[in-house]
């Protein structure tokens, strides 16, 4: 299973010829470094919640203009898709199969934000090997302690590095792929990655310094 990062939390999973895209949001596309044409071969798209750094209707339409990907999301995002006349499969809790991917959807609570309502948010376990908590750092996902790969928020207005590292330490994954850093400059990202890597190496956890457009890992 190949996982490629396209800034922030826009992630492309590839397995057995199927391409599954998560959260093509505004931060990934804001400066033109990522474009819809990069996803012309995508088969399926999953949106985890309504925040613009994970879901942008115009960006989604631009991707759908170059592919016939099927959409999967929760009811809050689904309301916006309905208004736009876009078909989708509802996925909020439980198991779903998308091509060769087995997904477990988990309803989780977004971390609190200043003067901002808490959205409906859906985390995922992909093929029993990857945990995508999205924007939560809560204990509600401790059932997946020891998972092979954790997609970890590394920068956010709702958490500092101490809290982020403490969450990952409790989860004890074998590997970490950093996400949610699309608003930072590359030189700052590299500096913070070096700090995270130093910390997690002490825990015996591999931290992948993935920041270039389309850079990938395989598990």
Architecture overview:
- This protein is an alpha/beta fold and 219 residues long.
- The protein has helices at residues 26-29, 57-64, 75-83, 161-171, 186-202, and strands spanning 2-5, 11-15, 18-22, 44-46, 70-73, 89-90, 94-98, 101-109, 120-126, 130-132, 149-153, 175-179, 206-207, 215-218.
- The strands form 2 sheets. The chain has a 7-stranded mixed β-sheet.
- The termini are close together.
| Beta-strand segment tally | 14
CATH topology: Metallo-beta-lactamase, Chain A
Q: Which residues sit in consecutive blocks of at least 5 with pLDDT less than 50? A: none
Percent of residues in helices: 10-25%
Which helices and strands occur, and which strands form pairs?
Blueprint: E1 2-5, E2 11-15, E3 18-22, H1 26-29, E4 44-46, H2 57-64, E5 70-73, H3 75-83, E6 89-90, E7 94-98, E8 101-109, E9 120-126, E10 130-132, E11 149-153, H4 161-171, E12 175-179, H5 186-202, E13 206-207, E14 215-218
Parallel strand pairs: 3-4, 4-5, 5-6, 10-11, 11-12, 12-13
Antiparallel strand pairs: 1-2, 1-14, 2-3, 7-8, 8-9, 9-10
In short:
Helix content is 22%, strand content 29%. By secondary structure, the chain is an alpha/beta fold.
Keywords, separated by commas or semicolons:
Metallo-beta-lactamase, Chain A; 14 strands; seven-stranded mixed β-sheet; 219 residues; alpha/beta
